[in-house]
Amino acid sequence: MSIYIVGITGASGSILGVRALEALRAMPDVTIHLIMTAQAKRTLSLETDLKSADVERLAGVVHDERDLAAAVSSGSFRTDGMLVIPCSMKSAAAIAYSMNDNLLVRAADVCLKERRRLVLSVRETPLHAGHLRTLTRLAELGAVIVPPIAGFYHKPSSVDDIVNHAVGKALDALGVPTELFRRWSGAR
After folding, report:
1. Phi and psi at residue 31, in whole multiples of 5°?
2. How far apart are CA 109 and CA 116, in angstroms?
3. Fewer CB under 10 Å: which end of the chain, C or N?
4. Rounded-to-integer distance, Cα 10 and Cα 38, Å
5. Per residue in 8-51, pLDDT tens?
6. How is the chain split among helix, strand and coil, in percent rounded to 5?
7. The pLDDT value given to residue 187
8. CA 110 to CA 118: how far, in whole Å?
């Protein structure tokens, strides 16, 4: 049994978090712990026709971001890692500096301190020097930064193809096997 934490922040790109949950849910023997911030719920309603309850149904366990006593707030609760997708720069900065004022940030901090995989799909552009310093600090702490950057070698024909590629790359970094996108097999 694998246990993954998925965090969804208020950054644009709610569909990325939804697709990651769908992909993880389709896997056998996986339990998903979901943490959605209040702003994530707001962004979801702005960007999609989904309600937060629709997204929460994709997870096995849903945590309130204010519950700093939840199981995932402790290193003694074993997980296989955490994916924050999309990850706002605000959340990235809070994680980088251990500002554990909500459960999403605390769970990410636990992954770092316990040397578990932490993958951040940071959704911001353009990036200024402060953003880049924050991302460098996160990489130095052990986080894997996987921005949802479109790949075109697989010749996407829809936005869905681009979403699947971005989510697939993030899941790869988390160590989760997925076939969401066509992998490069060399020039033909």
Report:
1. -110, 130
2. 10
3. C
4. 7
5. 999 999 999 999 999 999 999 999 999 999 999 999 999 999 99
6. 40, 15, 40
7. 85
8. 9
Task: Retrieve residue 146's tokens.
Answer: 């996987």
β-bridge mates for residue 63, sequence order: 35
Q: Are 41 and 120 in contact (CB under 8 A)?
A: no
Angle between helices 129-141 and 89-96 (to 10 degrees): 50
**SS3 per residue for 46-59:** HHCCCCHHHHHCCC
Rounded distance between C-alpha atoms, residue 120 and residue 78, angstroms: 19
Say whether the peptide bond before residue 28 is cis (omega within 30 degrees of 0). no
Full-model pTM? 0.96
Contact indicator for 95, 108 with CB cutoff of 8 Å: yes
Would you call 61 exposed, middle or buried from its count of C-beta atoms within 10 A (0-12, 13-18, 19+)?
Answer: middle
Residue 27 and residue 60 in contact, taking contact as beta carbons nearer than 8 Å: no
Look-up: residue for tokens 């992954």?
111
Contact between 121 and 9 (Cβ < 8 Å) = no
Give the angle subtended at the CA of 18 by the CAs of 13 and 19, to the nearest 5°: 95
